[in-house]
Write a structure and sequence with these properties.
alpha/beta; globular; Quinone Oxidoreductase, Chain A, domain 1; 11 helices; 6-stranded parallel beta sheet; Rossmann fold
């Protein structure tokens, strides 16, 4: 009889709950991680509504990032061994006692870092690298605008841009408390969007070279107004909606680039390349404490419904994390 484990099941119109499912087994280049902590993402809320299904071959259960201990390794795995403490980018499956993932999506958990902190790293840092640095080519001395600076991704984007030598960093948040945090993380200009128009603030600072957009909707047209010549805008979410109206002449005259990406459906090889770049360029800063995580709250795995309610309500600062005992 196949070994089972507990995982969070999603049944339409019913609260999230634990159920027994088959425990995963590793393929040749995969590992099985005993999950200790798993980060929440807004993509999980979309998946729960049937709007963001997992890519082919990924676990059906939710969860795009976790930290834990390697329990099994495939016969082709070369770098990792049973017992290694790791954090991981997942195609799905983090809301479970164990998850299987390609070895190229793992990063080593620094000594002294706990699993809750570790669960905040891989997905956010790899997303930031893929979009801000790989896709948009943020260069030393350029001006960077990050929307949603206290989100899990925003927290990492500000710190990584600062360490990469961005000339000026602007970021937005919805309260004085959140603005104070993004200033502490390295933003030179923290804009409370409930009190100020971020576009007017950006114009007064001479415009921006790169925008990381997690809002979409009417913000896209505003971003076209504030980018400099050869500016780049990358959309990775759309809290204000995915449908926009644009003046393409403005984009043409500025020789701008408007792009968007997702990370989840990329191939294992693509994710490995992004992982390698993050480890090469930024992991020493994680190990030295120059890149820090911000944890809003933790919930036991069995209380995933409450964790989702916390995220849906908004107002959280940093990551919401599910945990389980060893």
């Amino acid at each position: 009889m196949a070994e089972t484990m507990l995982a969070i099941a999603t049944t339409p119109d019913e609260p999230l709950s634990l159920q027994a499912i088959a425990r995963p087994e590793p393929g040749p280049e995969e590992v099985v991680i005993d999950m200790r902590a798993a980060g929440l993402n807004r993509a999980d809320l979309l998946q729960r509504k049937g709007m963001y299904p997992p890519p082919p071959g990924a676990p059906e259960t939710m969860g795009l990032e976790c930290a834990g201990v390697i329990a099994e390794v495939g016969k082709g795995v070369t770098r990792w061994k049973v017992g290694d403490r790791v954090c991981a980018l997942l195609g799905g499956g983090g809301y479970a006692e164990a998850v299987v993932v390609d070895e190229g999506s793992l990063l080593p958990l620094p000594d002294g870092m706990d699993f809750v902190q570790g669960a905040c790293l891989a997905e956010a840092m790899m997303t930031v690298y893929a979009n801000v640095f790989q896709r948009c080519g943020l260069a030393e001395g350029e001006t960077f605008l990050c929307q949603g600076g206290t989100s899990g991704i925003g927290v990492m984007a500000i710190q990584m841009a600062k360490l990469a030598g961005a000339g000026l960093i602007l970021s937005t948040a919805g309260s004085a408390e959140k603005c104070a945090l993004i200033a502490q993380l390295g933003a030179d200009v923290a804009v409370n969007y409930r009190e100020e128009d971020f576009a007017e603030v950006a114009k007064a600072r001479g415009g921006v070279d790169v925008v990381l957009d997690m809002v979409g909707g009417d913000y896209v047209a505003k971003h076209l107004e504030i980018i400099k010549v050869n500016g780049r805008i990358c959309n990775i979410a759309y809290q204000n909606g995915p449908v926009v109206e644009l003046n393409l002449m403005r984009l043409m005259l500025k020789r701008g680039i408007l792009t968007g990406t997702t990370l989840r459906a990329r191939t294992a090889a693509e994710k490995r390349d992004i992982r390698d770049a993050v480890e090469r360029q930024f992991w020493e800063h994680v190990e030295a404490g120059r890149i820090r995580t911000i944890v809003d709250s933790t919930f036991p795995l069995a209380e995933a419904e409450a964790a989702h309610a916390r995220m849906s309500a908004g107002g959280h600062i940093g990551k919401i994390v599910l945990t389980r005992d060893a």
